[in-house]
Amino acid sequence: MRCSGLMAERKLIVPPDDVASMIDTAAGLMELQETIFPGGLVAQDQNVIEFRQVTKRFGTVAAVADNNLSVKAGEFLSILGPSGCGKTTSLRMMAGFEQPTSGEVFIRGQNVTGVPAYRRPVNMVFQHYALFPHLSVADNVSYGLRQRTPRPSASDISKAVDEALAMVRLDGYGKRRSYELSGGQLQRVALARALINRPAVLLLDEPLAALDRKLRRDMQIELQNLQRDVGITFLLVTHDQEEALSMSDRVCVMREGKIVQTGSPRELYDRPVNRYVADFVGKTNFFKGPSTDETLSVRPEMIEIAASVARLPEGLAARVPVKVLNRIFLGEHTEYRVASEALGEFMVMAPRKSEREAGVYDIGDMIAAGWRAESERILPNT
Ligand SMILES: Nc1ncnc2c1ncn2[C@@H]1O[C@H](COP(=O)(O)OP(=O)(O)OP(=O)(O)O)[C@@H](O)[C@H]1O
Ligand SMILES: [Mg+2]
């Protein structure tokens, strides 16, 4: 399909193979639910998706390397990692657009390895909007339903479209063309088009990447509310750690095709398994570790500052004089960059409250910093 200049400008990019498969997915759902997955709803503790030692090679590149992952029913799980680490490839194997080179994929306890996309109860919202520019919003949303055999009645389709548009807060937008919508609205149409099929799992591949910061924040909240309301399992791919931490029940951190750690946002933040996770999830300071294979990590909000070493609280494991190199006011926090002769440069997050007690320090001031033993994490450099 070709896009006109205006469409292209609005990022209405249509990857034809994926859209065709997605439409097939919708068309195959009814049949699928009756054949491979009888019995309807999934128990809350059941794994909706499971990877068992899944590897995907493209030539010599292992895009996904020997991964195990379980996603529970109703869970909001994010896959987080830098560009090229295998996030999209993982999602495409769940959706059935790619098949693993080795290992097995299970959906609701059934081995679906080798089963094509149109026979899986999952829907994917792509990295790009992938809407049909010549169709109205309602026709885009109902496309999958209209391909089903037998085809639902016009009134059933219209009702389902209204419900799906209401879910994404686009009531009354059915008659509009896609080029009459904003980026956020387009992304919500893409969501409605996936939700109308009532998939067991919705796979979201960086759905907010094209949006500006404010809209992105609004959509993050809407996505979370939506997931709570519809109870569908959401799997979100992102390389934005703030997005992953703030939205998900659990986060899976990947590097070079491998899952490094999976856990709740708090677990990843407080108990990262290695330096890579600590660095990727939140801000932290790294200092020389007890051995060459280890690093000492201290989160900036765990560091206390005072006008002098003597004024630091009792019971700290580290107490050093530091010079203030930089100061950034961030509303409820101030971020200080400081330098110590013994430890080098590091970052401190001082909450407004402590500033009110202790005062604000200026660039060039000689002050002191320290932290408690329990704030220290010794992490392998892997
Ligand atoms: N069809 C393909 N043929 C060959 N190599 C591929 C193919 N698809 C992906 N790759 C390679 O596999 C690796 C993982 O790609 P993938 O698209 O999964 O990354 P990603 O984590 O989604 O990255 P991004 O954040 O940039 O979207 C990359 O090295 C990529 O070049
Ligand atoms: Mg990707």
The helix-and-strand class reads alpha+beta
Lateral strand order in the biggest sheet: 6-7-8-3-9-10
Specify the CATH class of the largest domain: Alpha Beta
Q: State the domain count.
A: 2
Task: Please describe the biggest sheet, giving its number of strands, its sense, and whether it closes into a barrel.
Answer: 6 strands, mixed
Bound molecules: adenosine-5'-triphosphate, magnesium ion
How many DSSP-defined strands? Answer: 18
Query: Helical region count?
Result: 11
Tell me which oligomeric state these chains represent.
Answer: single chain
CATH architecture of the largest domain: 3-Layer(aba) Sandwich
Structural account:
This protein is α+β, with helices and mostly antiparallel strands and 382 residues long. The chain has two domains: 5-275, Rossmann fold, CATH 3.40.50; 283-380, OB fold (Dihydrolipoamide Acetyltransferase, E2P) (Beta Barrel). Helices cover 30% and strands 30% of the residues. The strands form four sheets. It has a six-stranded mixed β-sheet with strand order 6-7-8-3-9-10, with helices on both faces. A five-stranded antiparallel β-sheet has the order 13-17-14-15-16. Strand 11 (285-288) and strand 12 form a beta hairpin. Helix 4 (137-146) crosses helix 5 (154-167) and helix 4 (137-146) packs parallel to helix 6 (183-195). The protein is elongated. The protein binds adenosine-5'-triphosphate and magnesium ion. Residues 58, 61, 63, 81, 83-89, 239 line the site of adenosine-5'-triphosphate.
